Q: What sequence folds into this?
């Protein structure tokens, strides 16, 4: 049994426990008007840009992407930005706080709602890298980051997303 | 400008990609740069050559630059604050000859810290850079017991405002990364080497020990140099001159 | 031989509850200290970038070493076939488990990231002695539990020799592993010595037996069960031999170092001018942990005094802690040779003796390891029949009285010669 499968089992167990507790709670509070925890507000601050994967995939699997990228970057020096935590933060940081943390922060507010602790930010900063005007290699590096492999992946995913769109929107209603 | 065959070929491919994506970038940087999606290889062995003859006593430009680059904050507690690089003043008690040298992680080929780490968090990248994978570091500090150079620091307190390229967090061990983010970006230098150069000393040279055309390899081949604690036979990636 | 009957302790009295309360308080203190250290970081401890392992490690290593030693009593019965030790085997196995649990708990609670224990269990670097030790410790639990089961289950009694031998070998390997944590550290003057492993084994014999003797005497006294002189005297004499052996190994270790000029610095530091560390070595380790217990155990004046035997065993424990303190702390205080032959200085304490003062949280966490071990032991004694109803001389060894007389005569003769 691998670590990830153990973790998945643990997550499933925890999720079912939460569900059980939630339904028990719902039964208890029937009749009383106990305020429910409001759903997290996911603020997308960068308009007109797509995320690196379709939203429903990101919601379920973002931790797998960054975990995979983590090992690739750490041990093999692979620095593609597509699934890098830095890329997530740079795009999703709140313009006001420049961070994905804080009460309304993109990462924190959803994780607080789901009661899932994040270990990332015990070391990584939650702030976006300052958008400096220094040109030179950096812009090149980021554009060169989109490899052919990534482009193929992207177009495939976009097609998949396009195909799945009607049902996805239907589901979310 | 003279190029080896390998460099020339590498430069050629990179240049093609370079012109397609962003024209006008200097050829030599592209030659050194690896594409972001490529894994590092053992073809490179990154290291430093430190000429203590050029290093001046009391100068801490390299230390400051390193700690600025990597966000190594000073809490004013010398016993527990992390020091990725430090200036050591050495004096021969017999002759009185004194000199000054920066000491950091020496990026051994057979690092004792990697041997002792129970989880494999302390590891050597195939291009010779010794790193701590803080994702799996449990903070046991066995590597600090094992390192002959005291290169490692344990993070004793909460840290905020880290640099995006240098994650650091309480309860884990860390050390000089040879500015791995700069190396991977193709900067071709480290913060300490850069600062030393800017200060006019040029005591620190960064480069690829395996590339016979690089300055570091040429100088190591033609001039005398030593490893710290060479008796331990660790084949360090950081070498010293003038000791 | 008379059949030995085992039973659980009553464990209803005020004394039992007070004991559990005391150990519980020690454990709660340790958990609190650990939380405090993890919340604020190790900044609140005396540990620094020079002294990376502190007081918690002293207690943890002591307990782990003692754990493997505590199993010896059982081994003497199963492996070496000494019938008198047979009734003592169950408590021996129990203490081996609980002491190890206490030591490991302290070690884990001191980690920089104890929340990542699962990482330590899922990622391994097989070149690391720590990684071997994780397997050796976990395996030890398994082996000793089976060993205990075979000792307690009549049908399996006949296999106890085989499993006992296996457990004995396992514990030797385990202590070798613990000693090698230090023995394989090439960079530091105080370590990097192959003798570390055998020295740790002999230390484990002494520490483990001292704790065993203390627990045995306390348990029998507080439950009012008879405990004869035969058992106590035999264990006491054995402890004396182990203590002498520890002194011998310490002497060989220092003589080896003294011969090589390279190590004169560390030897001068430990033996002569290391201030508090020299005192811990001579007064704590050698005098309190070695010479005084030997005098107590082998002076005819105190020969049969239970009280003095308990004092002697307690001193062995105290001296053992002093010895591990010397190994771990003093070994780090002495600076490493960055540039052999040169005097060095830096902002990172190069070339200086490191400063270390144990902090309260560290001490509380370390002591909680003892609390965990003793609480588990106390609870287990109530839950399962580990202790024989009686260990009186006539039951354990009917010929003990006559033999003891003969031994005394031989001793007197030897003293006379």
A:
């Amino acid at each position: 049994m691998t670590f990830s499968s153990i973790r998945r089992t643990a997550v499933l167990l925890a999720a079912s426990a939460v569900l059980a507790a939630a339904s028990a709670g719902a039964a208890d509070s029937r009749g009383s008007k106990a305020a429910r925890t409001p759903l997290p507000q996911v603020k997308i601050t960068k308009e007109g840009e797509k995320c690196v994967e379709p939203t429903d995939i990101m919601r379920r699997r973002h931790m797998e992407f960054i975990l995979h990228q983590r090992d690739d970057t750490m041990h093999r020096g692979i620095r593609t930005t597509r699934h890098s935590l830095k890329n997530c933060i740079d795009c999703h940081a709140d313009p006001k706080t420049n961070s994905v943390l804080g009460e309304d922060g993109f990462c924190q507010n959803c994780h607080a709602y789901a009661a899932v602790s994040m270990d990332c930010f015990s070391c990584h900063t939650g702030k976006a890298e300052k958008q400096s005007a220094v040109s030179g290699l950096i812009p090149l590096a980021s554009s060169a980051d989109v490899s052919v492999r990534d482009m193929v992946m992207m177009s495939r995913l976009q097609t998949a997303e396009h195909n799945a769109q009607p049902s996805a929107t239907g589901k979310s209603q | 400008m003279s190029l080896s065959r390998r460099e020339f070929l590498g430069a050629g491919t990179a240049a093609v990609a370079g012109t397609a994506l962003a024209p006008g970038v200097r050829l030599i940087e592209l030659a050194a740069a690896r594409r972001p999606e490529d894994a590092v290889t053992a073809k490179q062995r990154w290291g430093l050559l430190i000429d203590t003859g050029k290093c001046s006593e009391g100068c801490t430009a390299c230390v400051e630059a390193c700690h600025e680059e990597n966000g190594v904050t000073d809490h004013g507690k010398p016993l527990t604050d992390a020091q990725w690089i430090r200036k050591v003043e050495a004096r021969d008690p017999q002759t009185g000859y004194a000199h000054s040298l920066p000491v950091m992680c020496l990026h051994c080929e057979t690092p004792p810290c990697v041997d002792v780490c129970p989880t494999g968090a302390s590891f050597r990248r195939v291009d010779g850079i010794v790193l701590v994978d803080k994702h799996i570091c449990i903070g046991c500090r066995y590597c600090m017991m094992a390192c002959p150079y005291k290169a490692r620091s344990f993070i004793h307190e909460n840290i905020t405002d880290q640099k995006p390229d240098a994650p650091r967090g309480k309860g884990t061990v860390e050390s000089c990364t040879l500015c791995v983010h700069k190396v991977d970006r193709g900067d071709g230098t480290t913060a300490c080497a850069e600062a030393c150069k800017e200060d006019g000393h040029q005591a620190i040279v960064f480069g690829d020990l395996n590339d016979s055309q690089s300055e570091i390899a040429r100088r190591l081949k033609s001039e005398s140099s030593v490893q710290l604690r060479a008796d331990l036979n660790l084949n360090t990636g950081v070498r010293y001159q003038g000791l | 031989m008379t059949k030995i009957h085992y039973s659980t302790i009553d464990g209803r009295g005020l004394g039992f509850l007070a004991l559990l309360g005391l150990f519980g308080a020690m454990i709660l203190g340790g958990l609190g200290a650990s939380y405090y250290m993890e919340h604020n970081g190790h900044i609140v401890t005396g540990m620094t970038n020079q002294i990376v392992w502190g007081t918690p490690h002293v207690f943890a290593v002591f307990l782990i070493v003692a754990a493997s030693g505590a199993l010896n009593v059982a081994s003497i019965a199963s492996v070496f076939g000494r019938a008198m030790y047979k009734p003592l085997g169950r408590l021996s196995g129990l203490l081996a488990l609980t002491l190890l649990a206490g030591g490991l708990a302290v070690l884990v609670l001191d980690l920089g990231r104890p929340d990542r224990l699962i990482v330590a269990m899922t990622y391994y670097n097989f070149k690391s002695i720590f990684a071997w030790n994780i397997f050796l410790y976990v395996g030890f639990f398994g082996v000793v539990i089976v060993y205990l089961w075979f000792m307690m289950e009549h049908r399996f009694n006949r296999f106890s020799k085989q499993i006992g031998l296996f457990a004995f070998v396992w514990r030797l390997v385990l202590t070798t592993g613990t000693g090698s944590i230090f023995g394989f550290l090439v960079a530091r003057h105080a370590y990097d010595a192959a003798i570390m492993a055998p020295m740790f084994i002999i230390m484990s014999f002494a520490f483990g037996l001292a704790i065993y003797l203390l627990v045995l005497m306390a348990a029998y006294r507080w439950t009012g069960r008879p405990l004869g002189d035969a058992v106590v005297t035999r264990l006491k004499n054995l402890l004396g031999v182990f203590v002498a052996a520890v002194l011998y190994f310490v002497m060989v270790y220092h003589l080896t170092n003294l011969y090589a000029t390279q190590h004169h610095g560390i030897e001068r530091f430990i033996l002569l001018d290391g201030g508090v560390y020299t005192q811990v070595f001579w007064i704590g380790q050698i005098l309190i942990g070695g010479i005084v217990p030997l005098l107590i155990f082998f002076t005819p004046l105190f020969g049969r005094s239970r009280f003095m035997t308990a004092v002697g065993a307690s001193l062995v424990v105290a001296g053992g802690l002093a010895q591990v303190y010397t190994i771990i702390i003093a070994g780090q205080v002495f600076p490493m040779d960055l540039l052999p032959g040169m005097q060095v200085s830096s902002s990172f304490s190069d070339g200086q003796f490191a400063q270390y003062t144990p902090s309260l949280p560290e001490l509380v966490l370390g002591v909680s390891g003892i609390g965990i071990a003793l609480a588990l032991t106390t609870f287990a004694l109530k839950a399962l029949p580990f202790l024989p109803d009686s260990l009186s001389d006539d039951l354990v060894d009917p010929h003990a009285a006559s033999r003891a007389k003969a031994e005394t005569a031989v001793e007197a003769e030897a003293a006379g010669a």
